[in-house]
Amino acid sequence: MPDLVILRHGRSEWNALNLFTGWHDVDLAPEGEVEARAAGELLKATPGLDLRVLHTSVLTRAIRTAEIALRAAGRSWLPVKREWRLNERHYGDLTGKDKKATAQEFGADQVKIWRRSYDVPPPQLPEDSPYRANFDPRYRDVSPSDIPTTESLKDVHSRIIPYFETTLAPDLRREGERGGAVLVVAHGNSLRALTMLLKMMTPDEVTDLEIPTGIPFRFRLDESLRVVEASPLGDADAAAAAAEAVARQAG
Length: 251
Prior knowledge:
Radius of gyration: 17 Å
Strand order of the largest sheet: 3-2-4-1-5-6
Shape: globular
Number of helices: 9
CATH architecture: 3-Layer(aba) Sandwich
Order of helices and strands: EHHEHEHHHEHHEEH
Distance between the termini: 40 Å
Strand content: 5-15%
Number of strands: 6
Helix content: 40-55%
Structural class: alpha/beta
CATH superfamily: Phosphoglycerate mutase-like
CATH topology: Rossmann fold
């Protein structure tokens, strides 16, 4: 069976400040570097896990997490594929705003809808916002119509599907045949969308799915690339506690 390991980037500078980040490019916080190394040690210590190829988003926090983790795992030599469709969900005009302050301003219920509903995006990013990505060189080959100014999880799911079909699925099938595994290092919402696709979850089911930073999750897949087994590497109770902490970020 093919193996897929997903890893949300370590705690970032804006995670530490409890700010909505989305497509804004920030580095790892020192705690995030520690998380990434710990993730790499878990990858190294897992019996039978033969990582053969790496996929990441094009955002620094995911790229550095992968680099640190793979160095710790002794797999820095893995071939790498970068994909903008693995970017975090675009938080629109919430980008750069404090999560708890936003909950106080708009109400916790509204912020939960923006954060965890399937098809309700935050307000769009204004045209004069410094957080617009249109002129970022990493997106120069991306159609301007594909660069969002806000996104719901449904929008992220829609961009994950072509990435999965054209890029990830062929690697999973190839490495499955060779007994190897694929590692995807990305973000909370892009990994939620990928998990939703693989587990065939409904919009209601995915609402409460939380993916903590720095903890690898291993998916054993069947021939149709659907999940038959899923578990965190390491301490399952610690993973559950970390997921609960993610849910409390907006108060």
